[in-house]
Amino acid sequence: MTAREDAIALLERYYDAFHKGDTQAMLACLSDDVAHDINQGGREQGKQAFAAFMGGMDAAYKEELHDMVVMASEEGSRAAAEFVVHGQYLESQEGLPAAKGQCYVLPAGAFFEIANGLITRVSVYYNLQDWIRQVS
Predict the structure, then answer these.
(1) Over pLDDT 70: what percentage of the chain?
(2) Nearest to 54 by CA among 11, 24, 86, 85
(3) Alpha-carbon gap, residue 4 to 61, rounded angstroms
(4) What is the pLDDT of residues 67-87, one digit of tens each?
(5) Which residues, in sequence order, are bridge partners of residue 86?
(6) Domain ranges (residues) in the chain
(7) pLDDT for the residue numbered 104
(8) Measuring CA to CA, which residue among 18, 44, 42 is closest to residue 33?
(9) pTM higher than 0.85, yes or no?
(10) Which residues does 31 contact at the CB level (< 8 Å), separation at least 6?
(11) CA gyration radius, the chain
(12) Which CATH number fits domain 3-135: 3.10.450.50, 3.40.50.720, 3.40.190.10, 3.30.1300.30?
C-alpha cells in the first residue's frame, strides 16, 4: 500500500469504529498525545481527553454519518473526511438549546494529521448556527 492508501485505510477504520459505537477502536487509531480541535471551541490533548469528549457526545447525541468521502495527501501525513451528519439531540448541553429529541441533518468535515500510522490531530468543523437553528 502507498502512504496515501494507508492514511485512507486508517480513517476508514476510525469511522467504522464510530459507526459501530466502538470508542476503544477509535482510540486505537489515535496517538497517545492526539490533539483534538473541537468545532468553535478549544483544543484538547491526549487520548483520555478524547475518550471523555466521546463519552459526553455519546450521551447527548445519536449520530450517523452519511455520504462520506475520505481523501489524503500523497505522503499520507494529512487527510480529510467530508460527510453529512444525521443526528438526534438527546441531552441538553450547557450554552445550547434544550434537548427534546430533535433531529438534524448537518454537513460537516474533519481534518487529520497522521504520523507513524496513527492520527495525531483531529479537527472537526460544522456550521454551529445551522445546527442551533435546526434544534431550536
Answers:
(1) 100
(2) 24
(3) 32
(4) 999 999 999 999 999 999 999
(5) 64, 105
(6) 3-135
(7) 98
(8) 44
(9) yes
(10) 47, 115, 116, 118, 119, 120
(11) 15
(12) 3.10.450.50
End-to-end, the C-alpha distance of the chain in Å comes to 46
pLDDT at 62: 97
Q: List the grid coordinates of 134.
A: 435546526
Q: Kindly state the cell numbers that stand for 36.
A: 483534538
Buried residues in 49-74 as b, exposed as e (16+ CB within 10 A): ebeeebeeeeebbebebeeeebebee
**Which set of grid coordinates corresponds to residue 112?**
487529520
Q: Let me know how long the chain is.
A: 136
**pLDDT reported for residue 50:** 97
| 40 — pLDDT class (breaks 50, 70, 90) | confident
Q: Give DSSP secondary structure letters for 6-44.
A: HHHHHHHHHHHHHHHT-HHHHHHTEEEEEEEE-TTS-EE
